[in-house]
Specification:
With about 325 residues, this protein is α/β, with parallel strands linked by helices. The protein contains twelve helices and nine strands. The protein has helices at about 10-15, 25-30, 75-90, 115-125, 145-155, 170-175, 180-195, 210-220, 240-245, 255-270, 295-310, 325-330; strands at about 35-40, 100-105, 130-135, 160-165, 195-205, 230-235, 235, 275-280, 290. Bound molecules: iron/sulfur cluster. Iron/sulfur cluster binds next to loops.
């Protein structure tokens, strides 16, 4: 949960409701004994889907490397940390707050391992930093980088966030993701073997996907040895390829009621131990083209919580160990 996105009051309200699912705040409390604030950082990286190695257009939904909340104009990571902590101090009354440093923008393992070591280690060694969250692509995790992450993980917890978005290859062509499910599975196996926790990002409402397609992605992810998931509702942002298609009427976005209904189907299918890092999308308001009903994030989160309560929705209530295998047996391969 990014500190920039929610007030203390909203966080408290969210925490009070979170017993229906295992929230990131629950996880932080279990791991570190109290609240931890996630600080989004921009290390000045690029992405192979943008610098020409794989492509130059990027994923169709990506405005600027998912760096919504990172201080893009300041590349110096220590300065970013200082300014983010100062911002937090003005917003909260936390005494000696703890932080998780989140390398969010672009592909944060897309550099030689020596540079990554010099980037990550000083941050990890700051006394008030409890761990690192590193956003990257599964095709940017070579063996030497995995070995570095394993070493850092022995100092303090390190988790890796992978943007899978969907399991359906036809959709990945539409959104120009530029890696296969096989690549994702190989990277996940390496992270798992190295003992590194993994958080998978999913996007719901991608062009051409049916409810059944989206639930197949959920059942697949529910079967994986991962520790967390971010559930993003598709946001169409100005300046993206997706915005052009949206304006051309090639697809429409989910309505609020559709998203609430879908979330009520998704949450019970995820195992109760999996940490739910996010329950909706998150985009800069000034770039948001659609769906506009998401602009007031606090209102949307309140609606989600109220809907879970009214319908008595609980994470894990419909999960079984064999959900994905049974689906494969019934339908054949659905990706
Ligand atoms: S991999 Fe990430 S940073 Fe690269 S284009 Fe896709 S969303 Fe953007």
């Amino acid at each position: 949960m990014d500190i920039h996105a929610m007030s203390d009051e909203a966080m408290r309200r969210t925490e009070a409701e979170s017993s229906r699912y295992r929230s990131l705040n629950d996880y932080f409390r279990e791991q570190f004994g109290g609240k931890v604030y996630k600080l989004a950082l921009d290390a000045g990286m690029t992405c192979p889907n943008r610098d020409g190695r794989l492509g130059v257009r990027g994923c169709s939904f990506c405005a600027d490397g998912s760096s919504t909340f990172a201080a893009k104009q300041v590349r110096d990571v220590e300065a970013q940390l200082d300014s983010a902590k100062a911002l937090l101090a003005r917003k909260t009354k936390a005494d000696k707050p703890l932080y998780m440093a989140y390398f969010q923008s672009y592909t944060n393992t897309y550099a030689p391992v020596e540079i990554l070591d010099a980037l990550f280690r000083p941050v990890l060694e700051q006394p008030d930093i409890v761990g690192l969250a590193i956003g990257t692509r599964p095709d940017c995790l070579p063996e030497d980088v995995i070995a570095l992450l394993r070493r850092l993980n022995q100092v303090k917890p390190v988790w890796v966030e992978l943007g899978l978005q969907t399991i359906h290859e036809r959709t990945t062509l539409t959104i120009n993701r530029c890696y296969t499910l096989d690549t994702f599975e190989q990277a996940l196996a390496k992270l798992h073997d190295a003992g590194i926790e993994t958080v998978v990002h999913l996007i719901f409402g991608l062009p051409g996907e049916s409810r059944e397609d989206m639930l197949a992605t959920v059942d697949y992810v529910a079967s994986l040895p991962i520790q967390g998931v971010k559930l993003h509702l598709l946001h169409v942002l100005e300046g993206t390829a997706l915005a052009e298609d949206y304006r051309a009427g090639k697809f429409s976005c989910l309505r609020e009621g559709e998203w609430l209904d879908l979330l009520c189907e998704i949450l019970p299918r995820l195992p109760s131990g999996m940490v739910i890092h996010r329950l909706t999308g998150d985009g800069p308001k000034e770039l948001l083209l659609a769906p506009l009903w998401t602009a007031d994030k606090r209102r949307v989160l309140n609606r989600i919580q109220a809907t879970f309560r009214e319908r008595n929705i609980r994470q894990g209530s419909a999960w079984t160990e064999n959900s994905w295998q049974n689906r494969e047996l019934e339908n054949g391969c659905c990706c």
